Amino acid sequence: MASPEFLLQMDEVIDVDEVVVWKITPLFADWIASPQNFFLQNAVIGAESTVLELGCGVSGIVGLALAPRIGSYLATDQDYVSKILRLNLESNMINIEGPKKHRSKTKTTPSSPSSHKASKLKFLALDWETDAVESLPALLAHEKDSKKPKVDVVLACDCIYNESLIRPFTRTCEDLCRLVDATPTNNPTICIIAQQLRSPDVFEAWLIAFMRSFRVWRVPYNLLSDGLKENSGYVVHVGILRSNLEV
Length: 247
Prior knowledge:
alpha/beta, 247 residues, 7 strands, 7-stranded mixed beta sheet, 22% helix
């Protein structure tokens, strides 16, 4: 798959990690949105899926790549990244409109709830340490009259780079997966987590903590794109909440 070209707006400098586009991010975006991706080929991610990204940063690259292939995409991060992120999403909105017979020449912003163009990709401020996942708005739901929001897939790309992030990140993943109980007719939420292997200690601490609540599988290298394969320094894991597997 040839990666789409995205315009990155950076009109001001903020001294935070989120202004960095991690090296793994465009590689992960290219892989997760590829028609050859096994999640797409096996309808784990599909045209009706609701995907939520944790720690999207200011670029929105993963959302911009994947949104055209799914039902809705919610990019989340701390509130202070929202200004630049919204500029980037608006600048690249043409890439996520999806196929249409006639395109409108009028631009609309991703923050407008009435915007058809923005309906697939939205931003919501979410701080893992202070915000309650249960308060997420109904825009997570597949249907307008749904009483409880549903997330089909939780994505995270290079969000764990120090040990202080492990506990709030893992707890947020757990809470998102518990929004709707898994049943024989309601598939469990899955977490797809991509990481650069920097510190063995941090990675091991995260894996131990995550495996307490989740069944975890590493995506085999033969199912990843070239930039993510063995010896690249990157890994991708899939997690399903243990309690959701007991249904």
